[in-house]
Structure formats: structure tokens, C-alpha cells
Design goal:
heterodimer, A: mainly beta, 22-stranded antiparallel beta barrel, 12 helices, 61 strands, B: mainly alpha, two-stranded antiparallel sheet, two-stranded antiparallel ribbon, 21 helices
């Protein structure tokens, strides 16, 4: 589709495809009929309708005959009329029908083409006629079937066949009009051509766009009372990433995405309209083909020592981008209210490919990319190692010749190959899409590997024509990875690599194990095993080769749905899905791994988890017109969402035999033996209803209500459920009032209000005792008197299209208050319990989502610039006065009115305070005197650290800006996305440690300059840096706080579509060159601020030896047969 | 035809089917029972409430490495001169240098372990929460409750000796429990112990072989006689502790304990200790654990000075010899350059599965020696208890009798200077006390001998040794060199050259129970929660 962003987002491929499918389906019927008999020109109809729309008569004719009407929106079909005929010929009915109108019709095969009557200039002569042939394709080169080709100002016409071919007899001066629903009509003068091939362009005027909304309910976009942004597959997969969410960055307004630092396939932090819940979930909900998916996000590391057991992972990253047809992004609560609490933070609806009717199509795509580190810290290579042999730092003498050591050399070029093959097709009864995808990748750190195999099968079958349809799908995903990057201290090779002295020879340690005669096998070679910094206790090459983290996952998703049309206004549907994930995570620490982590013969962890999610819903849909002006669409439904999980993790030192990693060889009951058997089961039962009232097709009122019964609230005195209502109103002002549509083509105002909420966490409503030798009583007071947390959201917006849709603007203002925050706070343990639950606190988010699209022809080049703007302000309005501490791991509190929600060694903290935000960062500072001068010890020259925590800013950006440009010229498309994130701060403990160890460029510059300049004088560089950057994570991190503002060339792709003519239209080949993170136009931090070590709510803006983000180059091939 | 039948069927029923499904989905049953946890019903089976005795036992000195390091090692063990640390946490501003940080929260841990703490599974289950379960579920007249009472006193005196006033009598009963004075808490200990001793003795007299908490006891395998000895010995320890502030009551309690028909611990086999053989899950002595895993604790300079000076035969049992010199060499606590010692000094040599001793026969002998020195009727003379204490300690470490007797009779050896071989912290000895008992010595000299030898025997029970050091001033210990305490800091200034007297109240209490803590500080601590404030019994 070559149109502006707006329609990229909102005129989904799905819709036009659906229409195409419908048309195609009808045509298939037509052509099959053709075989038996010729055109049923004399079809007869019986109609007895009073005061109905012309369109209703048209529908009736379509129902009774094989005819299909084709017309565009200039044809006025809303006019009321009455028809009473019995066994009348279609043509006579039509003659009567259009007598009083400005509509003319043309019979073309099985098509009846309607057009607006114009003052025909009948003077043109068409002396000689000849056959003109050609192929009509869409912007992707796919043939358009059943497209009407009409000679202008005549009723002569034809339609294209299954291959998009047409043949028409026309004269030199005739103008052929190519028209097709959803596409811009094209007029081409015949002249002396005998062959005219046409590529159709999507019509951005098409206002009858249908988008997929909550529960999979399809709605006309213009009727929506809230903002929905839809992205089609081409837009998502132009520059592919193993995790599809990374492809959304910068393309959708209202969404902020951070990529995890765990490398390929890792999780993402997706925040829509700000973080809302202090302790609850702030994850967006992913919905696959109408049914919610479980997030499966792995536990995020909340300390800088060690990562989670299972690597970094989330369910959404398992999908094959090539299976996705489109995505709808529901940023607001009103749009998501039908998903209840799970939708409180926004929803991403993913619609997968269903297959199309027609010849079986085979498509193959390959996308291969190569990556290198994007943003690295700056290192020095002129000062050598500190003289003390056991020291790791580089405060030594200046070397005679600069060293050639460059930590970046440690990283290898990573690659990621994604191959996908899909077969799709079908007939008028059944369509299918079957695909196989393979993703094979290796990371930039040695021995980091990732592979994924996706199998998908979807079948859509009409079981009873026009009445009962079935939609069945099966997805199987097998994914495995090894040694995903960890942004922490224990098993992170980057720590010893970055801190390695340029005065030392790294090659000496590449042979990470030496033969040990006393043990008769090779053991770790590393003379620095007694370093105080845990990360330096092991050889980096040993870490990558002998501290293995292996994960493998199998996931099955099976779904089945039926839709039954009870009568012409009422239909029922029922569907369900089972989603099962089985996961094995192993950690193998080889013998001679440092004793802090492993026993003499090694240490082994084996964790097996099973997650089972069952979802089912039933929905009754009524759609009824009342009189001329009113229409009601109503749904009533119920769903049940059941999630079970179970895992068993066993960990311990090995027994006698070294490096035999099997549970039989684990010292069960040994001092390092740990077992974690955990089960959980929760369910949400819901009932919901929606109603949309439409008046004259330009005023719409939306009402929804959902009642959730939570299993987690069972046992609470209050109630087990929560009611979530929403109300919305929208009006199309450009239709209500007469305006010059050439200027103001479309003008809609919309407003909505919704309330959603979060229930209690699981299992906190009654007292428990932990089993085992020594029972432990519940540490919390049972939560019997709490209610769910509530988010109240209001939004108002407008959609404007100007100058016949040349400019497309969409604006939304929203304001949400999340009240009654569910807080678990620590009480004095002297009360008999350690924590208690209360409802208190209020968080406000308000902001703006804006997108702007434009289209412009520059000579032969079409230019489609588009922009998205995301602005959010977060504020903690209220916090309980007497409260909380430690609700999350590592949480702590230093005064009664604020929470410490992230803490790294007391040097970096995120603290929540009334009036602050949910991403406020606090760090320690250097002691200063009242005049602002840094305190320098007069004798020693040392500076002092002020241990109190100072607020230095917030991690969340002020705003995000995505600016995308697409240029098309013939078969070439150049597309690039510049992404700016403005405001916010980040803190780098990595840089602090580089300074502490004297390996950063800053330290050599300071030494060259004779010291660090403070108060106009110089203090000794080593003393200075060892003070402010001391400890395990730095001390005065105020010196390591950077603006997070960055502007980058996020995506670039150049696509060439080989003209299908070369392959006799049998073959489509598209070639592309792609790049991601190609250029950083602006960034002042020593790492990529777009990375995050934790994709949860907190621990944001903090870098602790994160693996650098990647700059990728690649190419892609797509072949369709 | 078939198709039509289906169609007709569906036409008639579809609406109802979907309505039934909708209501079914909406109303299916919900359950919120945690499948990982037990509820009351489960606990009733086999009367498992008594299992909370085990929970209390493993919470006295927590077995988890992080907890033990904070409750015992980084405070008591260092303040008692047993241990120095080769680490400089928080830029060397931490408990070792008398800096208490509300973000490190080290000084919170003893409180947390006493009153219970939410968290991961390595955390001790908590002493009072377990006691509270027994109180609630078995009633205060049950015999199980008496075992719980003894364990509670065992833990609570460690806690009150650390902080002073604590929220105690209202524990688990009030929304914001008030603090109680250490004095009131201590007197309640004697009442609780007396009641427990009485009920256990009655049970013992009925049936000496009765095992009322069989299977739920890691210390004595439910042996009543040993429990009574433990309770009497604990009573004796507490009596000695208040001997300066209330000599009359102290004498009464001490004599009651010793004269009780079953009496106090006199044999190492009766030592009150956690024993691996009684089934503690994954037992490992916590000092062994942290020494091996963290590589941070090292032999303290003070104990280096005494043991090397005395040529103590227990040295190989207490510490490893430093690899280079085959000698025992420690390091001071509270210095500016702890990391420079890394990997060099001797480190604790507690065995992996060594008993975790709460009260030993040796300590009881020294307690009786001090009682006898006060002219209390302890059933013998100070000298005999003094030598018995040394013997019992050495026998525990399987020292040969000849070595024991030559040690006891050594009148020449004196504490040596701490000769620092690693850094420049060499310090001359702070005491000249010798080993051999000399009846002609003055009372104070005798006391120094008793406490010094008790201190050597108590190792590695730093918490108790620190309490006795505060009460008596013995043994004389090296003062810390780097004192980071300050007027603005938590705990205030600790004057240089003086030893720390208590830990500040936990920072968590200030945040969760602030008003009441302020009230307690005013009422019981003269208005400041200072680490230099002496506890109630610390009046010498």
C-alpha cells in the first residue's frame, strides 16, 4: 500500500483483503457457473420492500441472483425507495430503481457496475475498436480479481479474471476506468496501446474501513469512539526482528518501547499511555485472533548480581512475524474495556493470516541480518595495569606504546536468519494458511545462540453456507537458546572484558582452561579469582564456554471457533483456545567455576515449567436497523480465562563426577541444594455486553460493561468481582454539516470514558503455612478487606482529513487516574504479620497521541511522510502517609511518605513520592559546600560522597517522535524511520566502574591533563575516580547520569520488486536491503538509552554492564508463486 | 437432508446454547486456595503445631548465609573481637566502622529474624511468629507452649541485648505494639522460664522418658531432662547478666537454677545446640557457610592476640593456619583497608556440620565460677568451675589432656601484640591477664580471667561474647581504628576508643511504626537512639 501513515495504520491490509476474499469468493462462484451456462442475463427477482434504501434492494438482488454490484462511494445508495415486483428481470428492476436517481448501471458479466450519471459527451467518435488486454495488480503485485474495467461514459465494461487479466474492446480515444472497492479509480487513455497493465493504489478516501476491535469484533473505523491504530504486515516486517514488538517502535502514537539488553529474542518493555499501577501489572495485553494470550514474561532481574532462572523471555517474542496479517493497537482504556483488568494497560490485537480463496500460493521469504555493537563506552589504551600483581585495575604507568586492546574485539558479528515458507489458498468453502518459519541466530557474545521453529496452520471453513463457519488454528513453536546476555555481575563476560587492563595481554586468557594434573581434566585458568568484584572472579571466556545457560521451550496453541448466523440480524459465536508452554531451563556450571557459584565438581540447575492457559468465550451479536436513522449493534457474551502453571526447579552442587550434568549426579540435600516446586491456578470468569447506537451513520454512542469474577478475590470479605463500564460518543461533523469536502474531507470528534481495574494478587486472602521441616506462618495479614484497583480513563480526540485526504491528522488527549492502588506494605513485624494490603494512592497519566500523514508527488516519485508523536506525563497524586516498604524485591523505604521501588546497592534508586512520578531516579552525589563547590580534603585531596539520595530526573521520556518517510519510484521503495526520544535520564554504573578501574577514556584524559578539574584546581584522577566510582556499582552516580535523549535512524529499507511481467506474472520476487539502528544522530550516554535491563515497571534507566544494542545490516528476499 | 437437520437444529437452539455458554463461562467455580501451602486443617494432622518449635530453633541463629552474616557475624562476631572482614562494604562505611545505614539496613536483621520476615526461603521462618502460632493453636497451658517459651526467651534475650527496648508484651496482639523496657522484658524472662521449668519438671517426674515434642526438636530430640537443664542454664546466664543492676534477684535466680533437682548443663553431651543428626534440612554451620562462600570473614586481631599469646591448643580448631607461614594470623575489624587483607589471614575453621551451640557446659561452668566469685552458692568454688570451664571447652575440641593441663597451669603466657604481617595495623596487647588461676588475685583480676577464658570458650558465639564484654569490660579488646560514626548518622557518635554498646533500632521500625518508636526512644533511651547508650544491665 502506498499511502500515508494514517492509512497504513488504519486501513489494514486485512480489510481490503477481506473484501477481496469476499469478491473473489463470489467470482469463483460466477466462473464456475460460467462453465455450465452463459450469463444469467435473464435472472428474475421477486421483491416487495417499502421505504428501504437502494442498498437494501441491491443486497436483495445479490441474494436472489448471482449478480454482484460494484460501485464506489460516489454512488448514493442510501436513498429510500419502494420496489414491488414478482419474477421480474433484473434489468427491468434496475431500470425502475434508478429512474429517479443519478445512478446508471452497466452489466458486465456477473457484475453490475453502478456509477454516477454524468453529462455524457456523446460526440466522441470511436471509429475503430480493438481488443485491449492487461493485468491489474495491487500495490504488492497481487492480481486483483473481479475488478471492473469500463469505458468511460459508456456502459461497456468487463471484469478481471483470477489472474487479474482482462480483455476489452475499445477505441483509441476511449478512456478505460479501472475501479475496485478500496482502491483509487484510475483512468487511462487507450491511445495506440494494445496492452495496458495497471497497478492499483489503495483509496485513502475509503471511509468504510473496518478495524478489529476488542474481542475480535470488527467495527467500521469511522464509528469508533476511541483511538485504534492498525498496522499491516508489510509495515511490521519490512525490517524484521526476532521479536515482532521491536518492529513497532516509533510507528504507533501513545506507545513507548524499550528493548531488553538480553539480545536476540529477548523481551520488550511496552508502555501505553504511561505506567499506572504502583505494584500491579503494567504489561500490555496481547490478543491473538480475538482471544487474550498469556504474557509469559520471565521474571526480571531486580538486582545487579544475578538474572532470573529462565533467561529473558516473553510469549509474544515466539510468534513468527510472517504469520501476522495485521496488528491493532488499542492504547486507551475505553478501547480495551472489554478485556477488563487485563486490558487496563492497553491491548495489542494480533490478527494472523487466514489464507485466501484462489489458486494455491506458495510464498517464501528470507531475511538475513548481521549485527555489531551500536553504542559502546569509550576506553583508554595508553595507561597500563596497576603495579600490584593481584590488582585488576589500570592505574599504572603510561605505556611506551599504546595497547591494541579493544574490548569491542570480544564481540563477534552476530547474524539472524529468518526463513519462512507459507502455503495458502482455498475455495469458496474453505481457506487455509499453513506456514513454517525458522529463525536461526547467534549473538555478539560468543556461544550465544538462538533458534526458533514456527509451525502454523489456520483453516477457515464454511460448514453451512451463509450460516455456519468454523475457524480453526494450530500453532506449534519450538524455541531454544543458549547463554542469553545478562546485564549483571555474576555470569557476565562483559564485566571482565570491559575492565580488562590495556596493559595486559588478553590472548593469554583465551585458553580459558588448562590441564590440571591433580584432577586429570582441564580447569579454569584465571589468576584474578580473588577479586572483590564478583564479576571479575572468572575468566570471561570460561564464562561464555563453561557457564552454560540453556533454555528450550515448546508451545502449542490450538483454537477453534464457530460462528452461527441465527437470522439476518442475530448471530452467535463460540470459540476457545488452549495455550500450553513447556519450558526447560538448565544452568551448567563446570567444575572449577568460582567457589562462590559452584562446588568442586560443578553445579547444576534444572527447571521444568508447564503453563496451561484455557480461554473460551461465547458471544451473541445483534445488528438491527430501526427506521431510516437508527441502527443498534449489540453484543452480549461471557468468557472464562483459566491459567495454570507448575514448575519444579532443582539446583545443587554435583556429586562425585565432575561436569556430568544430570539430576542423578546432584547432591540432593547438600548445603547448596535447592528445590522450588511451585503450582498456581487462577481464573477469571467474565460477563459482558456492548451496545452501539448509530444515528444517521454520523453519530455514534458506545456503551460497554464487563463484570469480572476473579478467583484471586475469593476469600475476601468484599466481593469477588468488579464491574467495568465504558461510554463513548463520536460524531462525524463533516457529514452532519455541509462542508466543502474538497478541503475538509473528513472531520470526526470523539470522546470516551472508561473504568477498568486490577484485582488482588493470587493467594493472599487467607493464612497459610509453608510446608517442610520447619513450617513458616504467613507473613502477610490476609487481605480480606481490599477492593480491586481502579483506572478511570477519559479521552477526547479528533480525526481530520484535509484536501481530499492529502493530509491526515489524528489527535487524542487522554487523562487517566489509577486510584485505590492495591498496595502491599510492610507493617512492624511486632504486629504479628510482616505486611498488609490496603487500597490507597493515586497515579495520574495524561498525554497526547498525535499522528500526521501526508502524501506528495515529486515528479515520478511518490513521497509519503508520516509522523507519530507520543507525549505522556505521569504523576503520583497520592500515597498513603503511614506506609510501605519492600513490596518488591529489594524495595525499601527511608521516610514515611515515599517508596523505594528499585535499589542498587543504595547508589541508584527509584523512589515514589507524592508529587513525583513513577520513574523518578535518585542517586548519590558528591559532597558540596553551600556555595556549590565540591568538597576536597585539604590534606589528601580526596573528594567525599554525600550518601543522601538526590533526585536527578526521571527515566520516562518527555515525548517520543517517529518520523517516517517512504519514497516510491517505479518498483523501488525507499523507506526510513527516524526515531527520537526526548527527555528523561539514564544512569550508568558501567561507566562508573570503567572509571574506577581506570580503563575509560575519561580516566586517561584526566591523567593526561594532570588530574580531574574540580573547583578550578586539579585532584588526583585515581583518588577521585576510586571515590566517586567506588564500590560494586559506583558511588556518586550523579556523575554518571546522562540525558536519555537520543535521535536515531531506526530503520531503513530499500525494496525492489522485480516487475512480474518478467516472469509472465507467475512469480513475484521482492528484494530488499535493510538496516536497523544505522545511525545515532544524537546521544550523550555511554550506552544506548533505548535499552533496558528490566522490562518490568521499575529499574529503568539503569545500565549495569548491559550488552550493547545492535546495529544491523541485512537483506531480504520474498518470492511468491 | 442431513445438513438441513443440523441447520434447523441450530436455528432453534443456537440462541439458547450461546446463552447457556455465556452464563456457564461467567459463573463457573473459582478457587483461591494456594496449592503450595498448608492451611489449618493440614496442620491439625499429627498435631503439627509442635513443628513450629523447629521453626523457632532455626531462627535463633539463622542458618541462611545472608541472615547469619547480618545478625551475628558483622555485629557480634566483630564487636567481640573474633572476626575481622576482608571487605569494605558501602565504601567502608558500615557496621564495622560504626556507621549504620538505613539503606544497607544491616542493623535491622536481628529484629527481622526475631519478629519474622517475609522473603525468600533462605530466611529463617522467624521466632516470634512461630511462637505465636503455638500460642494461638495449642493454648498457653499446653506443654508444647512451654518449649516455645524457652525458645522465645533464648531468642528474645539476644534481641534485647542487641537493641534494648523492644515491642514485646503486645506482640501479635496490637495494631501498633508499644515498646517495653529491657528491664521489664528481662524480668518476664525469669517468670516465663520458671513456669516452663516447673511444667517440664512435672512432666519429667510423671514420666522421665516422655517425649512430648518427639520429631519436632532439633536440639534434644525431645529429651525432657536436657530441656530442663537448658532452661536452668539459660536462667543462670540471664541471672549473671543482671548481676550488676540487680544483685539480689541475680543471686536468687542463679541459685535456683543451680539447685534445681535436674540442674544446669554440666556435660558437653547436654549442650544446648542445633544438631545435624536430629534432621535439620540441609544443615551447615552458618559460619562455615559464610567463610567458604563469601570469603569475607577472617580471624580477628583480638583473638589473634590472646590465642597466639596463650599458645592456645584450640587454634587449629578455631582457625585455619595461613597458607604462607603455617601460623595463625588475624586482622583487625573497623580499619581503613580491609580489602588489602583479601585471601591472606587465617579464617574461621568451623566444621561444615559442627553443632550450632547456644549454651555449652563450658559456658555454664564459667557462669558458675562468676557466681561463686560473687559468693553465691553455686555448688563449688570459683577456681574449680574456672578450670572445669577450660577443660570442658578443650574436651569439646578433643584436645589431649596433657595439653589441657599444661594450658591450665600456664602462668607465664600473656596476650601477645597483634603483629600485622599484611598491613600496618600492628597493635600491642591490651591485656596482661594470664591463664593459671591464682586464688590470691583480687576479685576483678579473677573476673577478668573468668570472662577472658569464657570468651575463648564461647567462640564463635559472638553475640553472647559481645554482651558479656559490654557487661564486664572483659576481655579487653582492640578498639576500631576507623570510626565512621557521626552526629548526623543513624546511631549518632560513638566516641573513639570506646566500644559500641547497642545497635540502633531498625530502620524498618521507624518507617512502619514511627510514632511508637519515637515514644520508646524518649521513654527508654533518653531521647536518642544512640549506639553509645548503655543497656539497662550495663552499669559496671
Amino acid at each position: 500500500m502506498k499511502n500515508n501513515l494514517f492509512f497504513r495504520c488504519n486501513t489494514p491490509k486485512l480489510i481490503t483483503k477481506t473484501m477481496k476474499i469476499t469478491l473473489f469468493l463470489l467470482f469463483l462462484g460466477i466462473f464456475s457457473l460460467q462453465a455450465k451456462m452463459s450469463y444469467s442475463q435473464d435472472s428474475q427477482v421477486t421483491i416487495n420492500e417499502k421505504e428501504v434504501r437502494i442498498s437494501d434492494i441491491i443486497n436483495e438482488i445479490e441474494k436472489q441472483t448471482d449478480y454482484l454490484f460494484v460501485y464506489n462511494d460516489q454512488v448514493e445508495t442510501a436513498k429510500l425507495t419502494s420496489v414491488k415486483v414478482k419474477d421480474a428481470a433484473v434489468s427491468s428492476v434496475l431500470d425502475d430503481l434508478f429512474k429517479e436517481t443519478d445512478i446508471t448501471y452497466t452489466l458486465a458479466g456477473k457484475h453490475i457496475i453502478l456509477s454516477k450519471r454524468t453529462n455524457a459527451n456523446k460526440t466522441l467518435q470511436t471509429p475503430t475498436k480493438r481488443n485491449i488486454t492487461g493485468v491489474v495488480v495491487d500495490e504488492n503485485g497481487a492480481p486483483l480479481i473481479g475488478l471492473s474495467v469500463v469505458i468511460k461514459n459508456t456502459t461497456i465494461g468487463t471484469t478481471t479474471d483470477l489472474d487479474g487479466k482482462y480483455i476489452i474492446s475499445a477505441g483509441e480515444n476511449d478512456v478505460l476506468v479501472f475501479s475496485y472497492v478500496g482502491y483509487l479509480s484510475q483512468e487511462i487513455k487507450v491511445e495506440n496501446n494494445t496492452s495496458i497493465d495497471v497497478t492499483m493504489k489503495p483509496d485513502s478516501k475509503m471511509l468504510e474501513t473496518v478495524v478489529v476491535t476488542a474481542l475480535g469484533i470488527k467495527r467500521e473505523e469511522k464509528t469508533l469512539t476511541y483511538n485504534v491504530q492498525q498496522l499491516d504486515t508489510e509495515y511490521l516486517t519490512a525490517v524484521k526482528d526476532a521479536n515482532i514488538m521491536n518492529s513497532i517502535s516509533g510507528k504507533v502514537a501513545g506507545v513507548t518501547i524499550n528493548q531488553s539488553a538480553s539480545g536476540i529474542g529477548g523481551s520488550t518493555r511496552v508502555v501505553m499511555r504511561g505506567t499506572k499501577s504502583i505494584q500491579g501489572n503494567n504489561e500490555v495485553l496481547y490478543v491473538l485472533d480475538g482471544m487474550p494470550m498469556i504474557g509469559f514474561k520471565s521474571k526480571q532481574s531486580t538486582n545487579f548480581y544475578e538474572g532470573g532462572d529462565e533467561g529473558d523471555f516473553e510469549g509474544i517474542s515466539m510468534l513468527n512475524p510472517d504469520d501476522i496479517e495485521s496488528m491493532s493497537v488499542l492504547t486507551g482504556a475505553a478501547a480495551a474495556a472489554l478485556y477488563g483488568n487485563k486490558g487496563a494497560n492497553g491491548v495489542i490485537l494480533i490478527n494472523t493470516k487466514k489464507g485466501q480463496e484462489g489458486n494455491v500460493k506458495v510464498s517464501y521469504s528470507n531475511s538475513t541480518s548481521f549485527s555489531n555493537p551500536f553504542v559502546m563506552p569509550e576506553f583508554q589504551n595508553t595507561y597500563g595495569k596497576t603495579a600490584n600483581a593481584s590488582s585488576y585495575s589500570s592505574w599504572g604507568e603510561k605505556m611506551a606504546t599504546p595497547s591494541s586492546y579493544d574490548p569491542e574485539d570480544f564481540f563477534q558479528t552476530s547474524y539472524n536468519t529468518m526463513n519462512s515458507i507459507a502455503v495458502s489458498g482455498g475455495n469458496d468453502v474453505s481457506t487455509f494458511h499453513a506456514s513454517f518459519g525458522a529463525t536461526n541466530a547467534r549473538g555478539i557474545t560468543p556461544n550465544n545462540e538462538y533458534e526458533r521453529y514456527n509451525f502454523a496452520l489456520r483453516n477457515y471453513t464454511t460448514l453451512i453456507k451463509d450460516v455456519l463457519t468454523m475457524d480453526a488454528s494450530l500453532y506449534y513453536i519450538n524455541q531454544s537458546d543458549q547463554n542469553p546476555a545478562q546485564a549483571n555481575l555474576y555470569f557476565n563476560p562483559i564485566v571482565p572484558i570491559y575492565l580488562f587492563s590495556p596493559g595486559e595481554n588478553i590472548n593469554r586468557y583465551r585458553t580459558y582452561e588448562h590441564y590440571n594434573s591433580s584432577r586429570n581434566f582441564k580447569t579454569q585458568y584465571w589468576p584474578y579469582d580473588n577479586q572483590a568484584l564478583d564479576g571479575l572472579k572468572q575468566n570471561p571466556f570460561w564464562i561464555t564456554e563453561r557457564n552454560l545457560f540453556e533454555n528450550s521451550r515448546d508451545r502449542y496453541m490450538i483454537s477453534l471457533g464457530f460462528n452461527y448466523k441465527i437470522n439476518d440480524w442475530l448471530s452467535a459465536s463460540v470459540r476457545g483456545r488452549i495455550d500450553r508452554l513447556e519450558m526447560t531451563n538448565e544452568r551448567k556450571l563446570y567444575a572449577s567455576t568460582h567457589s562462590q557459584f559452584s562446588g568442586k565438581t560443578g553445579n547444576y540447575r534444572n527447571k521444568r515449567s508447564t503453563y496451561k492457559n484455557m480461554y473460551a468465550d461465547a458471544l451473541l451479536t445483534a445488528d438491527k436497523q430501526f427506521g431510516e436513522d437508527f441502527r443498534i449493534i449489540a453484543n452480549i457474551g461471557g468468557s472464562f480465562d483459566d491459567a495454570r502453571s507448575e514448575y519444579l526447579a532443582l539446583e545443587g552442587d554435583l556429586l562425585g563426577t565432575a561436569n556430568f550434568f544430570h539430576l542423578d549426579n546432584v547432591e540432593f540435600g547438600g548445603s547448596q541444594f535447592k528445590k522450588y516446586p511451585v503450582k498456581s491456578h487462577q481464573r477469571i470468569n467474565s460477563g459482558y455486553a456492548t451496545a452501539q447506537l448509530a444515528f444517521k451513520n454520523y453519530l455514534f454512542l458506545d456503551l460497554t460493561g464487563r463484570y469480572d469474577y476473579f478467583s484471586t478475590m475469593e476469600g475476601s470479605n468484599n466481593r469477588t468481582g468488579a464491574f467495568y463500564p465504558s461510554v463513548g460518543l463520536s460524531g462525524i461533523l463533516s457529514d452532519m454539516f455541509s462542508v466543502n469536502k474538497d478541503v475538509l474531507s473528513f472531520f470526526k470528534l470523539r470522546a470516551s470514558y472508561a473504568m477498568v481495574g486490577n484485582p488482588l494478587p493470587i493467594y493472599v486472602t487467607r493464612p497459610y503455612y509453608k510446608p517442610g521441616g520447619q513450617p513458616t506462618p504467613s507473613q502477610f495479614a490476609p487481605a480480606t478487606d481490599v477492593n480491586e484497583e481502579k483506572t478511570k480513563a477519559f479521552e477526547i480526540g479528533t480525526d481530520i482529513k484535509l484536501f481530499q485526504n492529502k493530509i491526515d491528522l489524528r489527535f487524542t488527549y487522554y487523562n487517566t487516574n489509577t486510584e485505590n492502588q492495591l498496595l502491599q506494605y510492610n507493617t512492624s513485624p511486632a504486629t504479628g504479620s510482616y505486611s498488609r494490603f490496603i487500597n490507597a494512592g493515586k497515579v495520574n497519566n495524561w498525554g497526547i497521541e498525535l499522528s500526521l500523514g501526508y502524501e506528495q508527488k515529486i515528479g515520478p516519485v511518490n513521497w509519503y511522510p508520516s509522523m507519530t508523536y507520543t507525549f505522556n506525563r505521569n504523576k503520583i497524586k497520592e500515597l498513603p502517609k503511614e506506609v510501605p516498604d519492600g513490596f518488591d524485591q529489594g524495595g525499601m523505604m527511608t521516610a514515611p511518605d515515599h517508596y523505594v521501588v528499585s535499589d542498587v546497592d543504595g547508589v541508584y534508586q527509584m523512589i515514589l513520592k507524592e508529587g513525583g512520578t513513577m520513574s523518578d531516579i535518585y542517586v548519590q552525589t558528591v559532597q558540596k559546600d553551600p556555595n556549590g563547590f565540591i568538597f576536597v580534603h585539604p590534606g589528601t585531596g580526596a573528594v567525599k560522597v554525600d550518601p543522601s539520595m538526590q533526585h536527578v530526573g526521571q527515566a520516562a521520556p518527555k515525548y517520543n517522535l517517529g518520523f517516517r518517510n517512504e519514497f516510491t519510484w517505479n518498483n523501488f521503495t525507499l523507506d526510513f524511520l527516524v526515531d527520537a526520544r526526548v527527555g528523561g535520564i539514564v544512569v550508568s554504573s558501567t561507566q562508573a566502574l570503567l572509571d574506577q578501574y581506570g580503563v575509560s577514556k575519561a580516566t586517561s584524559d584526566a591523567r593526561d591533563a594532570g588530574g580531574v578539574q574540580i573547583n578550578g584546581g586539579y585532584v588526583d584522577a585515581q583518588k577521585y575516580y576510586e571515590t566517586i566510582a567506588g564500590g560494586k556499582a559506583g558511588v556518586a552516580l550523579v556523575e554518571y547520569t546522562y540525558s536519555a535523549t537520543n535521535v536515531r535512524l531506526r530503520e531503513l529499507s530499500l525494496t525492489y520488486k522485480i516487475p512480474p511481467k518478467l516472469f509472465k506474472n507467475k512469480l513475484d520476487i521482492t528484494l530488499s536491503l535493510t538496516g536497523r539502528n544505522l545511525l545515532m544522530f544524537y546521544n550523550s550516554a555511554p550506552f544506548d538509552p533505548g535499552l533496558t535491563g528490566n522490562t518490568g515497571t521499575y529499574y529503568q534507566g539503569y545500565d549495569y554492564f548491559m550488552q550493547p544494542s545492535l546495529r544491523s545490516f541485512g537483506f531480504g528476499v520474498k518470492i511468491t508463486l | 437432508m442431513m445438513k438441513n437437520n443440523i441447520t434447523n437444529f441450530l436455528k432453534r437452539k443456537a440462541l439458547w446454547i450461546s446463552l447457556i455458554l455465556i452464563s456457564g463461562f461467567t459463573t463457573s467455580c473459582l478457587d483461591n486456595r494456594d496449592p503450595n501451602m498448608l492451611i489449618d486443617e493440614d496442620m491439625e494432622k499429627d498435631y503439627q503445631w509442635a513443628a513450629f518449635i523447629k521453626s523457632m530453633q532455626v531462627s535463633v541463629v539463622p542458618l541462611g548465609q545472608n541472615q547469619y552474616q547480618l545478625t551475628d557475624d558483622l555485629h557480634g562476631n566483630n564487636y567481640a573481637g573474633y572476626i575481622g572482614e576482608m571487605q569494605d562494604w558501602n565504601n567502608n562505611t558500615n557496621s564495622l566502622t560504626y556507621f549504620f545505614s538505613s539503606s544497607l539496613k544491616w542493623h535491622d536483621e536481628m529484629f527481622a529474624v526475631t519478629f519474622g520476615k517475609a522473603g525468600d526461603e533462605t530466611v529463617a521462618p522467624g521466632n516470634l511468629p512461630s511462637w505465636n502460632m503455638i500460642r494461638k493453636k495449642t493454648g498457653e497451658s499446653s506443654i508444647i507452649y512451654q518449649f516455645a517459651q524457652i525458645m522465645k526467651v533464648m531468642q528474645m534475650h539476644r534481641a534485647t541485648d542487641t537493641y534494648g527496648p523492644l515491642p514485646y508484651f503486645g506482640y501479635g496482639l496490637e495494631a501498633n505494639p508499644k515498646y517495653d523496657s529491657q528491664e521489664a522484658i528481662y524480668y518476664s524472662f525469669f517468670e516465663d522460664l520458671d513456669a516452663a521449668i516447673k511444667q517440664l519438671t512435672d512432666a519429667y517426674n510423671q514420666d522421665p522418658k516422655a517425649r512430648p515434642i518427639a520429631g519436632n526438636d532439633y536440639m534434644f530430640n525431645s529429651n525432657l531432662e536436657q530441656w530442663i537443664k537448658f532452661a536452668n542454664s539459660l536462667k543462670l546466664r540471664l541471672a549473671i547478666r543482671i548481676s550488676y543492676i540487680d544483685p539480689v534477684k541475680a543471686k536468687q535466680y542463679a541459685e535456683e537454677a543451680v539447685k534445681h533437682p535436674i540442674g544446669v548443663i554440666t556435660d558437653n553431651k547436654d549442650n544446648a545446640a542445633l544438631r545435624e543428626e536430629y534432621g535439620i534440612v540441609q544443615y551447615r554451620h552458618p559460619l562455615n557457610r559464610i567463610t567458604q562462600i563469601f570469603n569475607e570473614p577472617a580471624m580477628g586481631a583480638s583473638i589473634d592476640s590472646y590465642m597466639n599469646g596463650y599458645n592456645d591448643p584450640r587454634l587449629p580448631s578455631y582457625f585455619t593456619s595461613s597458607a604462607a607461614s603455617r601460623t595463625y594470623h588475624g586482622m583487625p575489624s573497623g580499619i581503613s583497608n580491609p580489602k588489602s587483607y583479601f585471601g591472606k589471614p587465617s579464617v574461621p575453621n568451623v566444621a561444615y556440620g559442627a553443632d550450632l551451640v547456644f549454651i555449652s557446659a563450658s559456658e555454664v561452668a564459667f557462669l558458675r565460677a562468676e557466681g561463686a566469685l560473687n559468693n553465691w552458692d553455686m555448688g563449688g568454688a570459683a577456681e574449680s568451675f574456672y578450670t572445669k570451664g577450660i577443660e570442658l571447652s578443650m574436651q569439646y575440641y578433643e584436645i589431649q589432656n596433657s595439653a589441657i593441663s599444661s594450658y591450665i597451669n600456664d602462668s607465664n603466657s600473656k596476650p601477645a601484640a597483634f603483629a600485622d604481617q599484611i598491613s600496618s595495623n600492628t597493635t600491642s596487647a591490651v591485656s596482661t591477664v594470664n591463664i593459671k588461676w591464682d586464688e590470691s588475685d583480687g576479685k576483678e583480676s579473677k573476673l577478668e580471667k573468668i570472662i577472658t577464658q569464657k570468651w575463648l570458650a564461647l567462640y564463635p558465639n559472638g553475640a553472647e561474647a559481645w554482651a558479656e564484654h559490654r557487661r564486664t569490660g572483659y576481655p579487653k579488646l582492640f578498639a576500631i581504628k576507623t570510626n565512621a560514626s557521626g552526629s548526623g548518622s543513624v546511631g549518632g557518635v560513638i566516641p573513639s576508643g570506646t566500644n559500641i554498646k547497642r545497635l540502633p533500632l531498625p530502620s524498618s521500625e521507624y518507617t512502619t511504626n514511627g510514632t511508637i518508636v519515637d515514644e520508646a526512644v524518649n521513654k527508654y533511651l533518653n531521647g536518642t537512639d544512640a549506639a553509645s547508650t548503655k543497656l539497662w544491665w550495663d552499669v559496671k
